[in-house]
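ok trying this again, last paste got cut off
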Amino acid sequence: MFDKFSGECYVIPIMADEFDSSPMGKRFAVRMRTPKEFFDFDSTDKYPYQYMGEVCITTMTVIIIIIIIIIMIIIIIIVITIIVMVVY
């Protein structure tokens, strides 16, 4: 295990009752789950995963978002200016 905060590495045993472990058939023997087992895509009753598609952001969408942000900033500046004028 790598701790990103401290930068230290730890070696710890895989415990049988942890989510990311899977029994190997032998007593007290476990292994890490494979990605397929970890995400359990075959068990749709327990975890109903579904493909949601892709989102395509066009240049026009980005321009509209930037314009909306600029308008919000202008409104905030105007509100702050009015508050300062009223208080002082």
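PB: full thing came through this time. The chain has a mean pLDDT of 78.
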